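Predict the 3D structure for this chain.
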Amino acid sequence: MKYTGGCHCGAVKYEVETELEKVLQCNCSHCHKKGMLLDFVDNDKFTLLSGREELTEYYFNKKAIRHLFCRTCGTQSFAEGVSFPKTCINVNCLDNVDTATLTIEPFNGKDM
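Done. Predicted structure below.
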């Protein structure tokens, strides 16, 4: 299924094809503090429609994920794998998705 998503101010917009079968709730310090729900998709299932120039990046820990934020509103609506070929979608930033209807699996990122 195709979804659209993006940041809060609308500067960053994307389209992603996914089934939202396995939504992760990671307990690492980054995801936990932000309350992110994650879905990892193959890079060819993700298309950035606008806002590349509005993104700024952040790395931490093993620097395996390039965390991307809108420089205007600060929203991290997606991230890019550095050491693996996946795009990480913040499911909370998808349009018209009721996260209360999704199956959410805990992920122990804190101990990685």
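The chain has one helix and ten strands.
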